[in-house]
Amino acid sequence: MLQQSGAGTPASQKRSANDMTPLEAMSMCNESFRTSDEFLEQLNKTGSFPDETDKTPMCFLKCYLEKTDIISDEGDINEPKIFEMFPTLNSDATEDCKKEMDHSNNVCEKVYFLVRCVMTRLLVDGRGSDNK
């Protein structure tokens, strides 16, 4: 999903409605919310960050998802964009993962809980598609 060194892939060249590629969004968000490649690799491998108390990488995710139009500034999910990013994800999984956002009042945590749920379904459970 997220790798700061992912330049050159077709997905990293697609521009969002904000006219920003995912790689540009990552770079911009990393200026405000420094997040190491190790944290992002851990998210990609396990579905969660190694330290779930550190808000900085959570705010990095929020910034990235906003800049790439996957979520709105209000935290609403842009379903066509999330399905474009994760083609095997279905609307049932998305609805379930939206509920995870209710577990916090902190906006960065809410986005992290959403991403953690999506990544867990895709990487660990394999329930992103019709396997639910």
Automatic annotation (TrEMBL):
CDD domains, per the entry: PBP_GOBP (cd23992)
Region of interest (Disordered), ranges: 1-21
Pfam assignment, any one: PBP_GOBP
Record SUPFAM superfamilies: Insect pheromone/odorant-binding proteins
Main location as per UniProt: secreted
Cellular component aspect of the GO annotation: extracellular region
Intracellular or extracellular location(s): Secreted
Keywords of this entry: Secreted, Toxin
GO molecular-function terms, A-Z: odorant binding; toxin activity
Compositional bias (Polar residues): 1-19
Similarity field: Belongs to the PBP/GOBP family.
Identification of the protein by name: Putative odorant binding protein obp16 obp
